[in-house]
Amino acid sequence: MTSILKNTLVAALMFTTVVSLANGPESTFGKKTLEVEKNLISVKLDPVFKKKGQKLFVNLLNLDQEKVTIKVIDSEGRIVFKEVIEGDIVVEKAFNFEKAYEGNYTVVIIDNDKTFKEKVAVK
Q1: What span is annotated as the signal peptide, if there is one (predicted)?
Q2: H helices present in the chain, as ranges
Q3: pLDDT digits (tens, 9 = 90+) for 85-112
Q4: Is 119 helix (H, G, I), strand (E, B) or coil?
Q5: Cα distance between residue 120 and residue 123, in whole Å
């Protein structure tokens, strides 16, 4: 009989502890969860440019799925490529400059009034 009473008392104590942690103040349990959520919300949405030889890979996370404009401009200011992408969450593009004329090129990404540029030199 005493062992049943002891086990019941231990189970009640464990249950009370779990409930108090779950419903406790933010300073102990809930705060950590909120910090993680804040860190997830503040994700940088700048495009990623990666060069491999004469190839340039562009990746952009477009969560709002708004219009994204991609341009390639040569050293004389001429637009040699332009594409407008709308409605895609992930914008991926690869540019191959292996057969391009010599010179300097600029890849421009325009997203929500932000402009990002990456330069490529073709020799």
Answers
A1: 1-22
A2: 2-22, 31-41
A3: 999 999 999 999 999 999 999 999 999 8
A4: strand
A5: 10
Rg of the Cα atoms in the chain = 27
Q: Identity (one letter) of the amino acid at 10?
A: V
Q: Where are the beta strands (DSSP E) in 11-113?
A: 48-52, 55-61, 68-73, 79-85, 90-96, 103-111
pTM over 0.70: no
CA distances from 16 to 6, 10, 29, 111, 117 (A): 15, 10, 15, 52, 58
* Amino acid sitting at position 25: P
Q: How far is CA 87 from CA 4, 11, 92, in A?
A: 63, 54, 13
In 3D space, the residue among 78, 65, 80, 58 whose CA is nearest the CA of residue 111 turns out to be 65
> Residue 111's closest CA among 50, 52, 47, 32?
47
Q: Token digits for 21?
A: 């942690």
Residues 122 and 110: their CA atoms lie apart, in Å, by: 23
Residue for token digits 């993680």?
36
